[in-house]
Specification:
Length: 287
């Protein structure tokens, strides 16, 4: 007689949801000068450096120096993320709980990624300038290191270091971040220019044991702009950009207009501007 017991075996299902692998924290937090403001925008007024003149005449007339100034503008941008659950989902899911808490946690992770993206996009994009904040000023070409059909190389890192050093910035303690993907770390490991000691450092960088090479703090951001198999990596010294980060709020509500469906919605405000062009650079890398 056939053994029929196995045909009645049951399947156990998990009762909780598991997040897929994703970036869940703001990786660029320590490289950003955060700010906040009321209203839809904020103006940052900049003044140029001045040089003294040698005084060669006793009781001579005072020579007045007119300084130059300009303005950078940050605009508040609003973001939201919403999910909807049917009224009957709780019963139909059985032992599996409604993902309301999971949705809110996922919203927070999306918020942190959004903060990072606003930072590197602000550093490398156009900025609004002028007295009224209506002029769009593009990223300085001199600070864009061309790809040249190669990945990330020592020569490109040296060129980036020269841009930062040439800015004549006194704050030697301010960290300089370089946003890359895993491909650029592999490029460094494969380059023939790296010495034995450098190789060990890059190897540790790839393993996550260290995060610094040639004075740059490497941070992996998978969402960096790519076009025609060329990835644009973005770097800046802390203080080069200002990012406005408004508070994130989440709420769960019943949608009477959608058959009492449950809505889970989060919203937040972000914005920013590049304050110092001299402290920002981009590196194009072939992938």
């Amino acid at each position: 007689m056939a053994d029929v017991i196995p045909t009645h075996y049951t399947t156990q299902f998990s009762s909780n949801w598991i997040s897929r692998v994703q970036q869940s924290r703001c990786r660029l937090d320590s490289f950003i000068e955060w700010d906040d403001f009321d209203g839809e925008r904020k103006r940052y007024d900049r003044m140029s450096s001045q040089s003294a003149q040698e005084r060669t005449e006793r009781k001579g007339p005072t020579r007045i120096t007119d300084t130059t100034s300009d303005s950078r503008w940050a605009y508040r941008r609003s973001y939201d993320l919403a999910n909807l659950l049917d009224k009957d989902d709780a019963k139909n899911l059985g032992v599996l709980v409604l993902p309301t808490s999971q949705y809110i946690m996922d919203h927070t992770k999306a918020y942190h990624r959004n903060c990072d993206d606003i930072a590197w996009q602000t550093a490398s994009g156009s900025v609004m300038t002028g007295e009224a904040g209506t002029t769009s000023t593009v990223f300085p070409v001199a600070n864009a290191i061309a790809g040249g059909g190669t990945g990330l190389t020592i020569a490109k890192l040296l060129a980036a270091r020269e841009i930062i050093n040439d800015a004549d910035q006194d704050d030697d303690t301010a960290p300089t971040v370089l946003c890359v993907t895993a491909n650029q770390i592999t490029d460094l490991l494969n380059t023939t220019q790296i010495t034995n000691s450098d190789y060990n450092t890059v190897k540790a960088l790839a393993a996550g044991a260290v995060d610094t090479f040639m004075g740059f703090k490497f941070v992996i951001i998978k969402r960096l702009t790519t076009a025609a198999s060329v990835r644009t990596c973005v770097g800046w010294q802390k203080g080069a950009i200002k990012i406005m980060r408004g508070a994130k709020s989440s709420d769960i509500s019943i949608r009477k207009d959608l058959s009492d469906s449950i809505q889970i919605r989060s919203d937040w405000h972000l914005g920013g501007t590049r304050i110092h062009d001299e402290l920002v650079f981009t590196i194009d890398c072939a992938e």
